[in-house]
Amino acid sequence: MMQWLYLLALILAITGVAALDRRYHLAFWYDRNRTIKTLAISTIVFILWDMLAIRQGIFIHGNSQYSLPFTLFPEFPVEEIFFLLLLCYSALSLYRGGQNLWPRT
């Protein structure tokens, strides 16, 4: 069970961001198609960035009791996709929240 904790924490965090998104209509509940495209493109860019860094020896998976023991690619854990999605979704939601709080004049 310990190996699933990091993935479960990421899923819980994504669910929390989605709840805030729904409550305040920040991203997905504001413009579904644009949000899906934005999250897909930005997550893919970060995945490519990670793969480049892994290839250069900058990023390594490491061994943690809280992460899954298998990877999608060498040194690329399954949880990384969820982390990158959380990163992009949080950034997009914060950006949209800022637009709502401080509209341009």
Structure description:
This protein is mainly alpha-helical and 105 residues long. The protein has one domain. The protein has helices at 5-24, 32-55, 79-101; strands at residues 71-73, 76-77. The chain has a two-stranded antiparallel ribbon. The radius of gyration is 16 Å and the shape is globular. It starts with a helix and ends with a helix.
Number of strands: 2
Q: What's the number of structural domains? A: 1
Helix/sheet category:
mainly alpha
Helix content: 55-70%
Label this structure with key terms.
mainly alpha; 3 helices; two-stranded antiparallel sheet; single chain; 105 residues
Question: Can you give me a brief rundown of this structure?
Answer:
The protein is mainly alpha-helical and 105 residues long. The chain contains three helices and two strands, in the order ααββα.
What's the arrangement of secondary structure elements?
Elements: H1 5-24, H2 32-55, E1 71-73, E2 76-77, H3 79-101
Antiparallel strand pairs: 1-2
Helix pairs in contact: 1-3, 2-3
